[in-house]
Inverse folding.
């Protein structure tokens, strides 16, 4: 089998890897749950290549991410749930439907700014998914019987719970803000952060680990709220901070290596002095992060 620019060659490769008699033993052991962490990891690696402005890595990581889509589609086809073609058809239908100002008739194009059009389209899609779930023999990836779908779909249920915690908090807060559950000034948010920080200090002082975790979550949630109010993506901001930390720590390691020393050899005072030098190198004041 030869490489190809045709997406169907990738589908053939995935099917061959999952062939019971001749496939790859590791691939044959996998299911949706075991592959999901790799899917998340590949998405992060795509984002990392973009942040590093590396086109070569981005090409490779996009291929790895595409493989994840093909992998899940193969698993679904084996269970009679759907195929890769169904995935493509579903997303093309969604994109055409959600952009009537681009793909619609003359009337739709002239109504591109019609108020509520986007929400109306999404509501229609939600209703269709509900009907599809009601009529499908099963919607469970595991093959277990599907329970009757009678529960109410909550306003926040559209936000996937598996998102990274900072992004999840941000999206949940935005969703709540859509219906007016929000502060209109930053001062109450700052006061809430101070309150949560005080409550965290109290439970830490009495060594209540469970309560400390709970209060830490409340504090982080409040910080995300402040970031959202100022239009800052907390996930992006924290990744930027981590990248800065890694660069500065790498500077410490490099300087020590040039001196014939290791991190283990250095004292904390020496590393802190080099940290200050790293901050000066990247133009950060002593009061900066």
């Amino acid at each position: 089998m030869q490489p190809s620019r045709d997406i169907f060659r990738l589908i053939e490769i995935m099917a061959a890897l999952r062939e019971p008699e001749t496939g790859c033993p590791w691939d044959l052991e996998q299911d949706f749950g075991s592959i999901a962490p790799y899917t998340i990891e590949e998405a992060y690696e795509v984002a990392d290549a973009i942040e590093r402005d590396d086109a070569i890595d981005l090409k490779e990581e996009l291929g790895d991410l595409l493989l994840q889509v093909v992998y899940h589609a193969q698993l679904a086809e084996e269970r009679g749930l759907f195929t890769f073609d169904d995935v493509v058809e579903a997303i093309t239908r969604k994109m055409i439907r959600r952009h009537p100002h681009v793909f619609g008739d003359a009337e739709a194009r002239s109504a591109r700014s019609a108020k509520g059009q986007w929400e109306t389209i999404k509501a229609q899609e939600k209703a269709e998914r509900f009907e599809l779930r009601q009529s499908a023999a099963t919607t469970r990836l595991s093959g277990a019987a599907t329970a009757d779908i009678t529960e109410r779909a909550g306003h926040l249920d559209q936000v996937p719970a598996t998102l990274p915690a900072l992004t999840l908090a941000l999206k949940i807060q935005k969703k709540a803000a859509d219906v007016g559950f929000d502060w209109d000034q930053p001062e109450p948010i700052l006061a809430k952060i101070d309150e949560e920080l005080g409550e965290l200090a109290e439970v830490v002082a009495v060594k209540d680990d469970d309560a400390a975790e709970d209060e830490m979550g409340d504090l982080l949630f409040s910080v995300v709220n402040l970031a959202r109010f100022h239009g800052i993506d907390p996930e992006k901001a924290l990744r930027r901070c981590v990248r800065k930390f890694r660069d500065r720590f790498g500077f410490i390691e490099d300087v020590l290596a040039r001196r014939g020393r290791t991190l283990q050899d250095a004292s904390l005072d020496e590393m802190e002095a080099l940290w200050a030098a790293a901050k000066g190198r990247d133009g950060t004041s002593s009061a900066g992060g």
Summary: The chain has a mean pLDDT of 88. Residues 235-281 form one domain.
